[in-house]
Amino acid sequence: MLLRHFGKVWLNFSGPRFCSKSEACVSRGIALTTAHSGQRNDRRKTQITCSRGMSGKNYNVPPSAEFVARVSGIATMGKLPYRETAEGLDAAFVGVPIDTGTSNRPGARFGPRQIRSESAMLRAYNSGTRAAPYESLVVADIGDVNVNVYDLKDTCKRIREAYHKILATGCIPLTMGGDHTIAYPILQAVAAKHGPVGLIHVDAHADTSDVVLGEKIGHGTPFRRCVEEGLLDCKRVVQIGLRGTGYSPDAYKWNRAQGFRVVQVEECWHKSLVPLMAEVRAQIGSGPVYLSFDIDALDPAYAPGTGTPEIAGLTPIQGLEIIRGCRGLNLVGCDLVEVSPPYDTTGNTALTAANLLFEMMCVLPNIKYY
Ligand SMILES: [Mn+2]
Q: Does the UniProt entry include the keyword Hydrolase (predicted)?
């Protein structure tokens, strides 16, 4: 395998004690791409990521844990290189560390950091689907949106402007939340580029409240705002996993009236979601679609680290079936939101989130499968 080969190259050119500059790498068609002083310093080499020339592109390939310790280096998503901007990238992981839109337990502002930390477990290939994202797309971690933790409306403006810039480069954003408020300004930017988009929304909650405590902006209202502003192609919207107590006996009436397909969690219990996703693909068709995955869609037994948990949720397997079922769709952006690390001392919620984000990358357009 190329990566195993790459790993050996890495070991060869790094040597057991130091990282000498790129001769061996270059001689095998591998270029060093991150800041590299050539200093003979053991610690530096763990922060260097090589990329490999192929089809005229230099793909970013994270260092394999076969050769570089997982726990070493600066914590980027998937141990990918950090980049200042999305320029030249096909896809980018970006964090939006806010929780000022939460209605109950806070803490999602720490989500991106812990997802990055736990993502050190990720490897380069998807063993289940045989996807090879790092042989397909140029991907990097472009850091976090510079949010204003004192002002949610200003934060929304900052997010919208940041995503306008990301999308203008042609890069597909893979977002790490942050609470679900962020989907609203992200979709404003997405719709500005693509027009009204389809939406696959996986969540315990519909997030279509109109006003909460007199406020229009919060993590319970983003998709109501999106509908009002015409950002969604409502016939191509599906909400999956909705559950919990409601403010009225027919909590999802408004959603269905917009044309959304609402799949309440009871329809998912004890079932594979592979057949559902075949129907979803038919509903969504070939137009642009955005995937928004709230970690609270999963049962809190699996993902307790979240702000508004609801019992009897989806399993991680069903989460994978949903994401893998998005293969072939024209995904123009994805997010994974509402990871609140303080409510899960094990880190497993963030670990689950990291894996789900990796799976999202694996179903983007133009991914190579072995
Ligand atoms: Mn949500």
A: yes
